[in-house]
């Protein structure tokens, strides 16, 4: 790192906000799949500092990577080479929650869980929830339009972001903050920054519409004989309880069976069978009428478990949430988050691995909103690398053939860049590139990601 | 109209899709406030025709106005001068409704009510509803991000548009169609066209996420003593029945009192008092428990009326919906659709007309989502024109001072162009202009609207 540059940056953020040693946690994603070699991490504390950093970097053609909680899965928040990392974690003020409008105003560097802890006093909560809630930051959530567990009920994160403050690559601060649920004054510029993975600017503040914590919640676990039954149950619940359906998560029995030894202290809801299909579903609302709900579910299964306490509910959720982590412990994992019509999930997996042979693989996830996760485990990284391209070309081709999406919620990052033309088509990609050039003519923002 | 141009356009759309006479309904908005002088209306029937029209117009620097139902309130869909009108009403095919995903695929020229009639067979409905439902078109709804009656529950129209097909000013057809609830593959280009009032391209097809028709619905009418009580009831319902609250509409007694002679055949819910405040609210869901709800409401009012039939519900809604029309019959009306924090509505009106003196004026509307309508009636158009600027400068200045929006749902059109800098600030406006130039370098699309 050129010492003149370091000095100039230090002058902007102060000596306590510049790191040049022990940068491994910033250079590597949490899966250890993507590794950069940045020599400098900045932790600005104000929007003005972010603005000065970007202006300086733009004028000197220095490339930067904005970084939030670094919990992404597609290598979007770590450098490719030696880009300057701008870590947003010190911009962590919550300004206010307006109870009348249910809108929170916050810096972008606040941890999602901290937002929920703050909102708890008002009996409100954030409208999205992710496994990474304890470490992901608001700005990262927004800039990746993160998906998560409650999309089936609440819809996309994008729908709740009412306002943003954004710093453009040239240092200009765009005030797109807004505390009105309805503001219909033309092209909604802030939309461009939601989901753009830090390629167009850095989000520094946000207004988010929050939701009341429901009076009553109940988690159910179902054992089903076939994947077709999973689809049927889902359709049925959407018809009779659409408003109350908070989550609808599907898991193959083979992964729950494999994980069962991890829970010696807890009573499992079922003797998990490898060839069965399991559903975790949560309903929430004012008057749930759970007995009727259980009866309704009996039409589809003889086996149904309902939580008897908040603690049991948490344990049932744990069975679902730990899958990602437990796969990671089994070996080197290829993870996919595709969207296709729900009734095609099983077909898709069978096309990749006829007769379900090949390396250990499972599909599971947010079937309620059309998004399934396919995880494939390899014994070594070299084996994974050998297979990766082959699998992806086939998988993404099949997904595209069904009108699906190659990324339902994880985003593009480094991982899926080369499939963007397959997904978007040349004309759309051309438009996106022109917009990128408009905002970032020198290409300093998160280079070699997304586009 | 140059006959060579006419011939070329006729060659693209065919003789049955070009009109050069009796163009008054196309040149004038339904309020008779904005009047253009176009000499030609095209009614293309395919996306390819739209593409050829725009390519030809772009190459020959001919300005165009896209027009849907022409039900807007800000003069956005009528020409300023002699622009070519592209009426989308003949592109009215509904392609499919996928019951599994609840997504409809349709041409943009379908009437909103026709979409609902089609969806009825599946027990689904469109997620937004407007007074103009019988004549407004899907594409117009989307290109203006129309608001309407159910935003308090369902959120903005924008949230339900999953995919679009758009023709750019240069004739390029962008396929942004998408039938996945979750598609997180970077910058969401389609967002740019939603709410851009036809200044960036023409929407030809759309995928929209629909919602199930609720099992049970109930309309209530409340009489309240003060506007503060209106705010209190709203806060209370959001706490106890947030999920079920479909609409929360407020009306001043003085307009209901004035309209009462219109309903000689029907029983009014109340003897409307000029100094009282009235609320129409609708709840919808699975098990409404309406008796408990009525009891809860008694805490705020002694007077509450609940519909006893679908017909009565419709009549109660009529009392609210006819206000716009009845104001029009009283004289020449200035109409505003501002967003501000709900507890500031009364203050705002009092600031404009201290002691509520001056010309006849009322405020009413979607108080549940922070959007109030202020209507001011003048006896002549000349009087209206004399006052318009003065009122707007004051009103929009006050709205801005409270962090509000000068347009909650009607949009900008011709009407509010000159207040865009007040609303957005210079930097944001600069960005929007650059995006406009990127898509429409020759400025042919809906000129002198929005920006």
From TrEMBL, chains A, B:
Entry EC number(s): 1.1.2.4
Record's keyword terms, sorted: FAD, Flavoprotein, Oxidoreductase
Single GO term (MF): FAD binding
Requisite cofactors: FAD
Gene3D superfamilies: 3.30.465.10, 3.30.70.2190, 3.30.70.2740, Uridine Diphospho-n-acetylenolpyruvylglucosamine Reductase, domain 2, Vanillyl-alcohol Oxidase, Chain A, domain 4
Stored Pfam families: FAD-oxidase_C, FAD_binding_4
EC top class named in words: oxidoreductase
Gene Ontology annotations for the cellular component aspect, listed alphabetically: mitochondrion
Domain of life according to the entry: Eukaryota
Limits of the FAD-binding PCMH-type domain: 34-213
Family in the record: Belongs to the FAD-binding oxidoreductase/transferase type 4 family.
Protein name: D-lactate dehydrogenase (cytochrome)
Provenance organism: Paramecium tetraurelia
